[in-house]
Design goal:
Rossmann fold; 31% helix; 6-stranded parallel sheet; single chain; alpha/beta; 5-stranded antiparallel sheet
Length: 314
């Protein structure tokens, strides 16, 4: 059975262990050259051969599942090379590179539970990998202890999109955002908009007035969207975002609207540097016209910001 793609495999791994199933965590710990998946990519495999996650984009997943099941049966950890330099001459990566993959069938239940609990509390934890002893231990990323490990894999909370507004773009953002593995929270004064978003968003909340908007802490793993056509809603709502740590802020509207927005926010006491955090007109410039295209452009810009590939606004 091929592995089901999933970026965060730890909740499934914990669920299998709660069922009493033997399981292993598989981590891409070294890349020699380029690779189909980034360093730190993971899979989880159980004793039956059920698997989630992705290490090579399909090139070696079947072999990885077989290796994992053997590790589970023997209760041992291993580090295996695939691609260039591998003893498995029949498994080649199309990029011509070599990768080292660690199989951990003995990782602590307590460490796994601590990471998942931290993610749910919107905090991060990390695993430190000792590639000589073939062990992984819970560690604080960036700490002195973390520096002693060969590789440290940080586990962040699920990235979040908080979208506030009206109209058809908001439910489409919820749909595309969920497909891109964001947790989406939809907020709107329109019952129809909320109803359309509810099937895709993690949560959907009604909003009565702009002054009633309370979003709670906007952490550094959150993108914030203002999707109003009536921009009298924006001052109070965008103010919340500008005072937060969110990694992205976007606001719907034309260039003329964006200029007017700047004047309003400056009058409200926000400085130019803070206001430049707002991406408006929102979305990458792809010539988007229809609501689905606009939602796509917005999601692309959010992903670019999250991956550090977004050009700063002038």
């Amino acid at each position: 059975m091929p592995a089901l793609y999933m970026n965060d495999v730890l909740p499934m791994l914990c669920a299998w262990r709660a069922e009493g199933l033997g399981s292993a965590l598989i981590t891409l710990v070294f890349v020699d050259g380029s690779a189909p998946r980034p360093l730190g990519s993971q899979m989880a495999v159980n004793e039956r051969g059920d698997a989630v996650g992705n290490i090579t984009g399909g090139c070696a997943e079947a072999a990885i599942i077989a290796e994992a099941r053997d590790c589970i049966a023997r209760r041992v950890n291993r580090k295996v090379r695939y691609g260039a330099g591998s003893p498995y001459i029949d498994i080649r990566l199309p990029c011509g590179s070599g990768i080292d993959v660690m199989f951990d069938a003995c990782i602590s239940d307590a460490d796994l539970a601590a990471i998942v609990a931290a993610q749910r509390a919107r905090n991060s934890k990390a695993l430190g990998f000792d590639l000589t002893m073939l062990t992984a231990r819970l560690v604080e990323a960036g700490s002195t202890a973390a520096a002693t490990y060969d590789y440290v894999r940080e586990f962040e909370p699920t990235p979040r999109i908080l979208a506030v507004g009206k109209g058809p773009v908001l439910p489409l953002v919820a749909r595309l955002g969920t497909a891109c593995e964001f947790e989406v929270i939809a907020v709107s004064p329109e019952a129809e908009t909320l109803e359309q978003a509810r099937g895709h968003a993690t949560a959907a909340h009604a909003l009565s007035t702009a002054d009633a908007f309370r979003c709670g802490p906007l952490d550094r793993w959150t993108a914030f969207l203002s999707l109003f056509h009536e921009h009298e809603w924006e001052e109070a709502i965008l103010g919340e975002a500008l005072r937060s740590q969110c990694f992205y802020i976007g606001a719907l509207g034309s260039r003329r609207t964006a200029a007017a927005r700047r004047e309003v926010l400056e009058a409200a006491g926000f400085d130019a540097q803070a206001i430049r955090r707002i991406n408006g007109p929102v979305g990458l410039t792809i010539g988007a016209k229809s609501p689905p295209e606009i939602a796509l452009a917005i999601l692309a810009q959010i992903v670019a910001a999250r991956r550090g590939a977004l050009e700063p606004t002038s």
